[in-house]
Each structure stands twice: as structure tokens, then as C-alpha cells.
Amino acid sequence: MKRIGKDLRPVLVCFMVMTLLCGVIYPIFVTGIAQIVFPNQSNGSIITITQENGTKIDVGSALLGQEFTNPEYLIGRPMGASNLSPTSEEQNTLVQERVAGWHVLDQNNTGDIPMDLVTASASGVDPNISPEAAEYQVARIASARGINEDAVRTVISKYTSGSFLGFWGESGVNVLKVNLALDGLI
After folding, report:
1. Neighbouring C-beta atoms of residue 119, cutoff 10 Å
2. Are residues 131 and 72 in the same domain?
3. Which residue ranges does UniProt annotate as crossing the membrane (predicted)?
4. Are residues 24 and 76 in the same domain?
5. Residue 46 counted as domain residue
6. For residues 124 and 39, what is the distance between their CA atoms, to the nearest angstrom?
7. Is residue 47 part of a domain?
8. Are 86 and 108 contained in the same domain?
């Protein structure tokens, strides 16, 4: 019986030390560094607007996609994570349904629908679309808002980010920021 107590003590001490290190000290350290180095990102990249009466409201995160469906807005990628194979019948059916939806929404657009408008991202909450997907929607947005297509392109250009370090990844257009700018909120 004494042997069990003697063997158990080091295990419990190790458990407590590791819990303190990995469960308390390390998360506090990493959170502190993130707050100093990347304060906006570590707090969710929340976009806040000030209303006419001076009240500030949070309208969303620049890092998470939000669903827009009205014709006067830039529409992002389909919501919901997908781990379907690109060759699966279920994926093909979803893509065809989404293509049909785009044809109903924008009947005058005969261009090829960019793939990112009919396929979900791996996370299902991608906040960006490709510049090609944004350009595909310019005429519809301009028509729905009664503005010039170049005005829409100017807003899209303002919220288009290039690839990381100029070569890593692809350019992206932040859907939420474009829509807030089109509404004159940012």
C-alpha cells in the first residue's frame, strides 16, 4: 500500500505542474503576445461603425464570411464547410444547384461563373472571394444600386488584398468591407 502512494505522488505532481504550465501559463503568455503584436486580429478583427446618433455597433468580423443574398450586394462563397470530393456526385449536384441559383439571381450575366461562387471553402466561413468572382458581379450590383460600374469597381479595388509577401497565396476581395462601403458605412 505504501508503494502505491509513493508511485502516485510523482504522477500527481507532474500532472499539476503540466496543467499549470500548459493550461494556465502558456495560454496567458501566448494571449499577451498576441494582444501586443496583433491586437486587432487577436480580438477578432471586428468592424465597428458609428451610427448617425453616435452609437457604435459591431457589424461583423473581417475574418469571417457573412451571407449576403440581395442583388445590390457582393455575394461571397457558399456558407458551410465541405469535405466533399471534387469528383463526388453530391458535390456535383450542389455545384449545379448553385449555378442555377446564380442564373436566376443574375439573368443578364452570360459569363462563366467563377468556381469560388459555387463551391464552399474548407472552413465554410471564408470572408474573401477572388477578384474574378467580384468582377462577375459588378454589372448586377451597379444596376441594382443605380450607379456606374466603375464606382463599384473602385470600391472592390479598395478592399482587394494582394498575395502575402507578393507571391504567397492569391488576391482576395473582402465581401463584408465592400458591402459596407457600398452602403456608405465605412
Report:
1. 16
2. yes
3. 12-38
4. no
5. no
6. 25
7. no
8. yes
**Predicted confidence (pLDDT) per residue in 35-84, tens digit:** 999 998 888 899 998 888 989 998 999 999 999 999 999 999 998 877 78
Indicate if 23 and 69 belong to the same structural domain: no
Q: What stretches of 115-162 show up as alpha helix (H) in DSSP?
A: 131-145, 149-158
Collapsed DSSP state (helix, strand, coil) of residue 115: helix
The two most distant CA atoms of the chain are separated, in Å, by 85
Cα 141 to Cα 145: distance, rounded to the nearest angstrom? 6
Residues whose CB is less than 8 angstroms from the CB of residue 109 and which lie 6 or more positions away in sequence, other chains included: 102, 136, 139, 140
**Collapsed DSSP state (helix, strand, coil) of residue 56:** strand
Range of the domain at 74: 53-182
Q: In the predicted model, is pLDDT for residue 160 greater than 90?
A: yes
The answer to whether residue 58 sits within a structural domain is yes
In the 8-state DSSP scheme, what is residue 76?
-
- Across-strand partners of 161? 172
Q: Are 172 and 161 in contact (CB under 8 A)?
A: yes
Tally of domains in the chain = 2
Rounded to whole angstroms, the Cα distance separating 17 from 174 reads 44
At residue 161, what are phi and psi to the nearest 5 degrees? -105, 145
Cα separation, 155 vs 137, in Å, equals 13
Residues 82 and 165 in one domain: yes
The whole-angstrom separation of Cα 30 and Cα 42 is 10
